[in-house]
Amino acid sequence: MKTRLIIQILLLSMAFPCYGQFSQTAAGYSGNQVSDIKETKSSDIQYSANGNWQIDCKKGVGNLFINGKEASLTVIYNQIYIDMTELKRYDFEKGIAYVLKEIPEDIGNIGRNLNWKEYINNEPIAYLKMIDDNTMSFYWYGFYNKKTKKREFKETNFQQESKTKEIILKKCSP
User: Whole-model pTM?
Assistant: First the structure.
């Protein structure tokens, strides 16, 4: 019986390497591995989205340029170009949320009819998730109208250029 119990414990420890390393306390479980996870800092996670990003580097018109916490996006080619600023990083998935930085100056006829003053707020309009150093997933939410509390202009050149629902951008230059 004792040998059978030892074998079961050995099998469990091989299947679950952390089994037996935690001691139960009144507040739950504690141990080295748990405290190591809690001590992970965002400064330990290295990823950069800096560069010029497109669906197709040779013939794409949709463009995202990132430099530090600032980004420029071609929403609609020859119509709407915006500047964004980083709102928040989600290090657990290498993600970055962006908000509209200011009312754009370079707009065509389509852009002139939008409620730009209502779009300047702390609601994210775009989110990116780094896949690797040269590839990212891009999500466009649209401009958030703080007066109507609705998203507007929910499409960019990227949706028009992408052959799939998911928008995957490639790094075209550093």
Answer: 0.72
Phi, psi values for residue 161, rounded to 5° = -85, -30
- Residue the block writes with tokens 């703080």: 146
- What is the spatial distance between Cα 24 and Cα 125, in angstroms, rounded to a whole number? 44
> Would you call 73 exposed, middle or buried from its count of C-beta atoms within 10 A (0-12, 13-18, 19+)?
buried
Pick the closest to residue 99 from 112, 86, 108, 110 (CA basis).
86
**Count of residues making up the chain:** 174
Question: What are the tens digits of pLDDT across the range 30-66?
Answer: 333 333 333 334 444 578 999 999 999 998 899 999 9
pLDDT of residue 79: 93
Q: With left for phi above 0 and alpha for psi between -120 and 50, is residue 12 left, alpha or beta?
A: alpha
Which has the closest alpha carbon to 127: 137, 119, 115? Answer: 137
